[in-house]
Amino acid sequence: MSTEMLMVLALAVPTIGAFGIALTGSNPNLRETVTLVTAGILLVIVGSIVPEVLAGGRPQVTLVEMIPGISLMLEVEPLGMIFAGVAALLWPVNSLYSIGYMRGNHEKKQTRFYICFAVAIASAIGIAFSGNLVTLFVFYEILTVSTYPLVTHKGTEDAMKAGRVYLGILISTSVGLLLLGIIWTYVLTGSVDFQQGGILAGHVEGPLVGVLLALFMFGIGKAAIMPVHRWLPAAMVAPTPVSALLHAVAVVKAGVFSVVKVVVYVFGLDFLAMQSGTGWLVYASGFTVLAGSIVALRILMTRGNLKRMLAYSTVSQLSYVVLAAAMFVPMAAAGAALHIVAHAFGKITLFFAAGSIYTAAHKTEISQLRGIGRRMPWTMGAFAVGALSMIGLPPAGGFISKWYMMLGAFESQHMLVLAILVASTLLNAAYFVPIIYMAFFQAEEAQAPAYVGGGGDDHGAHDHGEAPWPIVVALTITAGLTVLLFFFPGVPLALAKALVGGAP
Amino acid sequence: MIEHLPVLLVAVPLIAAPLAALLNRPTLSWLVAVAASFWALFAAGGLLAQVQGGRVLRYDMGSWAPPIGIEYRIDAVSAFVAFIVAAIGAVAVLYARRSVEREVERDRIPLFYAAWILSLTGLLGISVTGDVFNVFVFLEISSLSAYALIAMGQDRRALVSSFQYLIMGSVGATFIVIGIGLMYAMTGTLNMVDLAERLPAVMDQRTIPVAFAFLAVGFSLKLALFPLHLWLPNAYTYAPSAVTAFIAATATKVAVYMMLRFFFTVFGAAFAFDRMQVDLVFMPLALVAIFSMSLVAIFQVNVKRMLAYSSVAQIGYMILGVSMASVTGLTAAIVHMFNHALMKGALFMAIGAVFYRIGSVHIEAMQGLGRKMPWTMASFVLAGLSLIGVPTTVGFISKWYLISGALELGWWPVAVLVLITSLMAVVYIWKVVEAAYFKDFAGEDDTIQEAPLGLLLPTWALIVANFYFGIDATFTSGVAGQAARMLLGGTP
Question: What is the model's pTM?
Fold first, then answer.
């Protein structure tokens, strides 16, 4: 089968899967089988595109001409390959987890949940493989719309409110800023294509470059650079599998992926490095890195909501990617691409653990986690691995990406970035290590009133063990992936280097 | 027969109208209307196919050569507009059957269809004629029948709104005929091509600018340019649902076409924009229309009225495109005529289907309808996405051209305003979505079902078109681009 055909199939398979899920909605076992099979097929398809891209191929397909001169088209390049690979690899694992979680918590409207999930994955693949800005924008918007029902899944007043924040910020930034940036680029250059080295050089100069860059950076609201990050904590009302795959991987990575893609293929690293009005991005993303961590630390100090803390940690980690891209040197850009992978594996593990705790013990607050490591050793063990990756310590994948970012900072003499990275590492340690300590080394409170009423009556201080097996299996796999990435970073590393044009 | 298509396009419906009245049976009259509408669609499609590649069709009425006889001239612009009118007319007439049964008294139905066909005739006639007085005649045919159609609404306020429209519409028509008269006095011809040739010689006289001014005001009234839009919200709100869908999707577009025809073909872009600087008047008005009417729409509780205000805002987009007087801007205006017809047609049809079942179009009455009428509400949401301008819908194509046009000229604030108003559309469409999907059904009648297929199928036909022409817009934007270049090139 030709690679072009495979690319179209990668889009088509999850879409067809969504229909299959809709048709089999009345039979949950069959429905879940459809999800798992679809996810498996997608993984095989995406996996079989990798060799050609590694060999330097850039397969292209034009889907349809939209208006004269602008087509919806797909093109696979290393960065897109990385993103699509991560999404395709984690979808089957997440589906397994979802089945355990959704059934374990007796969630309603599961068919709608799985349909929207499949559509969201299809659009994430579409973003990863998009061959020009318009295609990217189309799938970006579909992703926003298809994840809305997932965010508001619970249907409560709180969920609706969060849903409004989610849609409000994502739609208004993308329509108000990103679209404007895209059309401006088109008017300036007559093109919307992604090209190695960028398309803007020679068409615009001076401070205007900074303005255009700002339209893109804040327009891509999914990258959650402050102050357009608020949708992400709001989205935490969703069921945990959604937070795990979408708000740690697919949606937010679509954001930072688009950021790196625009920086590398629309502006071009060299072009940006030469312009004067573009330095602000380092400060904006650096600020977000630190501020996100500080908020997360505050949530820890007040023993707040665990998922909320993880959300702010995500805000901070996403800006690592932007910060790395903002140095405008190849080494750091490779680090940015790697961090997309490393953070995905680590953060999905952390969310899986949070959901596992909720399913088994019905606990959501950090204060309730004392001693839970003894009841749920697998879950908290995986949590510890994920936390290591966030901090950036060996033997977790987060170390590799941080390593390349630091190399990039040295190479480009960005001492400020270096300082930010070090400070953020300390902050990450400050809010993750206490949780691990609480879970394993503190005694469980016997009858804490906090969760007698909080977690549902029958789940008060009851005896619970690990979560259902699909959940445990899923989080063990992702924790394993996090460690494996440290020891065998081969494929992602090769792709990341190919992105910036270096020999693998 | 092919060479007679230009006249048959108009003549067949013109004959069908009295036939529908004479047959005097609701079903038979409806069938006549269907036949006439589909004939018009076939003929307009044939004309559009013939003018591809810049050809211009000319047809001398009764073989009388102009300037004695009336000439029909069909180029890319006219054929495109005629096609829009005929296509929406054909879909709307299919929709009309069930909707009209419910909303119009039975013994008036034959007359209703007679008026309907006349209105269609008038709109088609305006788009193909090459004679300025003939434009006026067809304008009156379409307007008078539209007043009658609106007055047949169930609500008694329909009479008042029809009367309001009658007064304002007649004022507009009078302004137009005064303008035409002044031009005739100066040049001695009513043929557009002749006018375009003779006007430059007399341009220095004050009469021509005055004629231009009269025409500009007349058109603005007819196309409901802010602040001359006051007739529109009431007329759209109280007219029968099918009429609203038909008129909202076609009448104002044809008025925009008339304006393009006069400004660009008869007077020429140089006179209209360099000498009279009509853009200096139109651009601010268009911007105010876009912004203020979107804002007003947010606060409406009657969904039909909300959509009516949104229409005034959308007309602002078209006029904004015209006022750019560039190829991209005009392309935006022309392609948006088509696109807006699709989206507003679909929205008004969806809301008409809601009215068919629950007898109300208030947001509160629509609570929980997402479950009771899933297909109707889904079509409303999808058409709403198109109105907002979500990619893969036609609305996105319009926005793309409009914003490119603004940025080409360096009109930054305009581009930003267009984007902001798209977000305002999100707000007012969202109000309906939230009521329909996230509130529980509040009505007493628990037996409410999905709308009948007779209403759903036409609505969904438009929804499909909204997405088809949003994903592959090469046809629409290609024709619109060709039309724009032709208008700016000055070749009549």
Answer: 0.88
B404 lies within 8 A of chain A by CB: yes
Chain A residues within an 8 Å CB radius of B416 = 176, 180
| Contact in structure between A180 and B414 (CB atoms under 8 Å) | no
B457 touches chain A (CB under 8 A): no
For chain A, say whether B477 makes contact (Cβ under 8 Å): yes
- The answer to whether the Cβ–Cβ distance between B415 and A172 falls below 8 Å is no
- Identify all chain B residues contacting A65, using CB atoms and an 8 Å cutoff: 472, 474
Across the interface, of B407, B416, B423, the residue whose CB is closest to A172 is B423
Residue type, B356: Y
Residues of B in contact with A175 (CB under 8 A): 389, 419, 422-423
Contacts of B427 in chain A (CB under 8 A): none
Helices and strands of chain B, counted as H and E runs? 20, 2
A163, two tokens:
């849903």
B277 contacts: CB under 8 Å, gap ≥ 6? none
In contact, A28 and A36? CB cutoff 8 Å: no
Judge: B471–A66 Cβ closer than 8 Å, yes or no: yes
Any chain B CB within 8 A of the CB of A176? yes
* Strand ranges in A68-148 using DSSP code E only, listed in sequence order: 70-75
Q: Compute the nearest-CA separation of A336 from chain B (Å).
A: 29
Residue A260: burial class (beta carbons within 10 Å; 0-12, 13-18, 19+)? buried
Phi, psi torsion values for B129, nearest 5 degrees: -75, 150
Q: How far is A134 from chain B (nearest CA, A)?
A: 9
CB contact under 8 A, A155 and B438: yes
Tens digit of pLDDT per residue, chain B (492 long)?
778 888 888 999 999 999 988 988 888 999 999 999 999 999 999 999 888 877 888 888 878 887 778 888 888 889 999 999 999 999 999 999 888 888 888 888 999 999 999 999 999 999 999 889 999 999 999 999 999 999 988 888 889 999 999 999 999 999 999 999 999 998 888 888 888 888 888 888 888 899 999 999 999 999 898 888 888 998 899 999 999 999 999 999 999 999 999 998 888 888 888 888 888 889 999 999 999 999 999 999 999 999 999 999 999 999 999 999 889 999 999 999 999 999 999 999 999 999 998 888 888 888 888 888 889 999 999 999 999 988 889 999 999 999 999 999 988 899 999 999 988 998 899 889 888 887 777 666 677 888 888 899 999 999 999 999 988 888 888 888 888 888 887 443
Question: If we measure between CA atoms, which residue out of B356, B351, B352 comes closest to residue B436?
Answer: B351
Q: Interface pTM (ipTM) of the complex?
A: 0.83
Q: CB of B76 within 8 Å of any CB in chain A?
A: no
- Is A158 in CB contact (< 8 Å) with chain B? no
A138 to chain B: closest CA residue: B391
Angle between helices B76-103 and B453-471 (to 10 degrees): 160
B401, β-bridge pairs: none
Separation of alpha carbons A358 and A368, rounded Å:
11
Check CB contact under 8 Å for B423 and A180.
no
Closest CA to A8 of A91, A55, A73, A89: A73
Tokens, residue B40: 């018009």
**CB contacts, 8 Å: A72 with chain B:** 471
Provide, as residue numbers in chain A, all residues whose Cβ is less than 8 Å from the Cβ of B392: 138, 142
Q: Which long-range contacts (CB under 8 A, 24 or more apart) does B460-466 make?
A: B460/B375, B460/B379, B461/B91, B462/B91, B462/B342, B462/B345, B462/B346, B462/B349, B462/B383, B463/B346, B463/B379, B463/B382, B463/B383, B465/B342, B465/B394, B466/B342, B466/B343, B466/B346, B466/B382, B466/B383, B466/B386, B466/B393, B466/B394, B466/B395
Q: Residue A64: which of B385, B419, B471 has the nearest Cβ?
A: B471
Containing H/E element for A111?
Answer: helix A110-128
